[in-house]
Amino acid sequence: MDRFRIEGGRRLRGTVRISGAKNAALPAMTAALLTAEPVHLHNIPRVRDISTMGRLLAHMNARVETAEPRPTDLTITAEKISGAGAPYELVRTMRASILTLGPLIARLGAARVSLPGGCAIGARPVNLHVKALAQMGAEITTEHGYVEARAPHGRLRGAHIVFEKITVTGTENILMAATMADGETRLDNAAREPEVTDLVNLLIKMGARIEGAGTSCLRIDGVERLHGATHTVIPDRIEAGTFLIAGAITGGELVLNGCAPGHLTAVLAKLRETGVEISAEGADCLQVRAAKKLVAADVTTEEYPAFATDMQAQFMALATQAQGTSVITETIFENRFMHASEMVRMGAHISIDGRQAIVRGPATLEGTGVLASDLRASASLVLAGLVARGETFIDRVYHIDRGYENIEEKLSAVGASIERLRPAQT
Ligand code: UD1
């Protein structure tokens, strides 16, 4: 398994190009299952979850083609697809494979998808996806680890769905299922994440009739069929936020190109509260300068537009370097502080009390061997390694490869000392 070796203490300076959003690209890819015509997607990040999703769609007989020499362009043609089942071997590495369920049942009237396994950051059930599909008339059984859904007359029917809890992929799944249902579907308490809105925009280009984009109430008027479309995926706000912290934590100065500052409002406000200087340099460009004096700030993760849970671990790395006590409250997932114990091993002062992490700073971090436990936790350990004294070795970087495009190359290009060690070298 690959590892990272990081030599801490370098100030980062330069320009970083932000990739397309993994969490917008994944639903966009499954949306292609809704039509027999080609769907052309631009700004697709080159990360492992995307290739896993490509393999999954190919397994369903969709044609997935990258446009060399532009590997960030993808064309998916789902002319004749099979809903025979998303196999567990693929699903277990990526929960987002559940996003095939809504499109398959809408297109074929039936679908069989392996239940995603447990996940390091919490139980993450799919009961809300299943319940909403049942409200739309689907007959659902879960047996032998698979969800099987069938629309009795081949089509789902519109329904009024009130999500008990805000769910991002749940909203996306039901949105896609509703595009070709009979009649109107209304989704209340829907997720408002920019990735959901990006999916709405793609579906509208494909001929779907959807109102309420960006709000918690989405109304979908089912149509007979959808057609092909061309779409550019939004920039990755979590990658952008991670690089903002990389600039700030190393005492450096970075320019981020190709980002969407409007999607980062809560993160920018919180970073400014700590003293980090950030300025917008045009519509898709941000400049970050380290704080003259970095001070503690409390953070509570919540659904968009509040501070994203996917930025919590990275913010914790920054908080270890801030003067004072930061209280970080995680409200979305029940077990998302695994990076804290690794940071403590590096010398951070962090105590966990249920859903709160209390971080006392500043602490001098020392490089050591640490273990990445999930995607964003691994990013936070990279950030800690960038500021630690000496060498940090991060194991299980396959987690980071799921969602960050060439992170070591992007960091090296702005002055970090980070290298990937392949098994033969370790
Ligand atoms: C998505 C993102 C992930 C992000 C998360 C929260 C993708 C591919 N992944 O994950 O990066 O961290 O949103 O912003 O877009 N829940 C249930 N029952 C369900 C569904 C969810 O109880 O049927 C709970 C979850 O356990 C969690 C909360 O609802 O506590 C939010 O989860 P959800 O928004 O569904 O996360 P994902 O869509 O899996």
What are the salient characteristics of this protein?
426 residues, alpha+beta, four-stranded mixed β-sheet, 14 helices, 30% helix, globular
Shape: globular
Strand order of the largest sheet: 21-22-1-23
Bound molecules: uridine-diphosphate-N-acetylglucosamine
Query: How many beta-strand elements?
Result: 23
Count, helices:
14
How confident is the prediction overall: mean pLDDT? 94
User: What amount of the residues lies in strands?
Assistant: 25-35%
**N-to-C terminal Cα separation, in Å?**
9 Å
Look at the helices and sheets and give the structural class.
alpha+beta
Cα-based radius of gyration, to the nearest Å: 21 Å
Largest sheet: 4 strands, mixed
Helix content: 25-40%
Low-confidence stretches: none
